[in-house]
Design brief:
Layout: E1 2-3, E2 19-20, H1 23-35, E3 50-56, H2 67-74, E4 77-83, H3 95-102, H4 112-118, H5 131-144, E5 167-174, H6 178-189, H7 194-206, H8 212-217, H9 225-237, H10 240-246, H11 262-273, E6 279-283, H12 289-298, E7 302-306, H13 312-324, E8 328-334, H14 335-338, E9 349-352, H15 357-361, E10 372-379, H16 383-402
Parallel strand pairs: 1-2, 3-4, 5-10, 6-8, 6-9, 7-8, 9-10
InterPro entries: Helicase_C-like (IPR001650), P-loop_NTPase (IPR027417), SNF2-like_sf (IPR038718), SNF2/RAD54-like_C (IPR049730), SNF2_N (IPR000330), SNF2_RAD54_helicase_TF (IPR050628)
Keywords: ATP-binding, Hydrolase, Nucleotide-binding
GO molecular function, one term: ATP binding
């Protein structure tokens, strides 16, 4: 086996039988191959015919327009396999790049525009597809796909194929404080690009400090933290005197990392209740990690940190610390770093900030011996509620695709079970 760690790695057909590399490495070699198709040294992968190509985390190339998808398709191979826990994250359209790689040519569905005509188009909305499209998709699925869920049982013994502890999924409704709600409302009224607005609203749900810069950019010349804080609130309420009476002195500067937002307060309450148990805190925003760390430090809670920006060595040390250090009870993980290729079976509690189901699956998997509790902290009357509804619709869509509840990270849980 050759572990391809860089462009210098040599591939000699007579000596190498197994090659392990990342999608990024494959993409780089494909770019070199397109520039100089005759140079074997520049892109050796594309100058050999491989017996088998296995794509782990195959949803990584679900977008057919990406260079990653084109690189995956370009490899010459006899047999192909795709492994993924989430083959479709948005719609049936996500299956097309995988089907094309697998060589599914039935009714020419490997051609994108024909796939869109016969199975699913970008113009369609929601999980519903017509009967003829469903019939075709089910036929392809039967011949080319093997679905396995955590709830599958042995047909002969009736026992689960995978023995896992219970997983309880709870939604914790968070009410913003007066000052947090004012900041959130102001962000909502700002003239930002739609995607920027959505991101800033999500950040405002976490902590005001995450949106301080965008507020400063439109706040005028006086950029002190205290003035930007008060100015924002005055603009929303119309009276500095009125707002000053409403806010306690300790809350005059919600942009400080020391300010405990409603989410942080709820997080600390959960950690206090689960004292002595290992906990993962998932977050979408790495900028939120120092704020979380400050809250943990002030509460005398020892933590480890795992993000995509840390070195592989530091990541391994963080995982070892949470697994073996009895004094370390929390690990903070960025969602992008923690949703793939990670095995964490030392933790059984989760404060999940807007995380995706795949991140939860990093914990609720083979090797986990303890019951799992997932806490989703969701701000009332906010963008987070809308996102939650969208996620549930996608889970239902995934369930329709698979014919089961594979889209649910904890199995078949009703809505009442998921609410605290």
């Amino acid at each position: 086996m050759l572990l391809n760690l860089g462009p210098e790695a040599d591939i000699v057909a007579s000596e190498v039988y197994n090659l392990l590399l990342t999608y990024a490495q494959l993409q780089r070699q494909h770019s070199s191959f397109k520039l100089n198709p005759t140079s074997k040294a520049a892109a050796p992968i594309f100058h050999y015919s491989w017996y088998r190509q296995i794509n782990d985390e195959a949803h990584k190339f679900r977008n057919p327009s990406t260079t990653t998808a084109k690189a995956v398709w370009a490899v010459s191979k006899q047999h192909g396999h795709c492994l993924t826990g989430t083959p479709a994250q948005n719609s049936l359209l996500d299956f097309h790049p995988l089907f094309k790689f697998l060589g599914v040519t039935h009714e020419n569905v490997d051609v994108l525009n024909i796939y869109e005509q016969k199975i699913y188009s970008k113009r369609q909305q929601g999980p519903i597809i017509n009967k003829s499209a469903k019939k075709l998709f089910d036929l392809i699925k039967k011949d080319f796909c093997i679905f396995r869920s955590k709830s599958d049982v042995d047909s002969e013994t009736g026992r689960p194929l995978v023995m896992l502890p219970s997983c309880t999924d709870l939604i914790i409704d968070i009410a913003l404080s007066v000052e947090e709600r004012i900041i959130y409302s102001h962000i909502k009224e700002m003239s930002l690009h739609i995607f920027a607005t959505l991101t800033r609203l999500r950040q405002a749900c976490d902590h005001p400090s995450l949106v301080q810069r965008v507020l400063q950019d439109g706040a005028g010349s006086d950029q002190s933290e205290e003035n930007i804080s008060l100015r924002t609130m005055v603009k929303s309420q119309g009276s500095l005197a009125t707002m000053s009476r409403k806010l306690p002195r300790a809350a005059r500067n919600p942009f400080s990392d020391f300010f405990r937002s409603s989410k942080l307060k709820a997080m600390l309450q959960i950690l206090h209740k689960c004292k002595g148990q290992k906990t993962i805190i998932f977050t979408h925003f790495t900028s939120f990690i120092p704020v979380i760390a400050q809250a943990l430090h002030s509460a005398n809670i020892r933590w480890a940190e795992y993000t995509g920006g840390t070195s592989h060595k530091d990541q391994e040390e963080a995982l070892m610390q949470i697994a073996e250090d009895e004094e370390c009870s929390v690990i903070i993980i960025s969602i992008l770093a923690g949703s793939v290729g990670l095995n964490i079976t030392s933790c059984n509690k989760h404060y999940t900030h807007g995380t995706v189901d795949q991140a939860i699956a990093r914990v609720h998997r083979i090797g986990q011996m303890l019951p799992i509790t997932v806490y989703r902290l969701v701000v009332q009357e906010s963008i987070e509620k809308s996102i939650l509804k969208k996620q549930q619709l996608k889970r239902e869509m995934i369930g329709d695709m698979y014919g089961d509840v594979a889209g649910d990270p904890c199995g078949d849980l009703d809505e009442a079970t998921r609410r605290a």
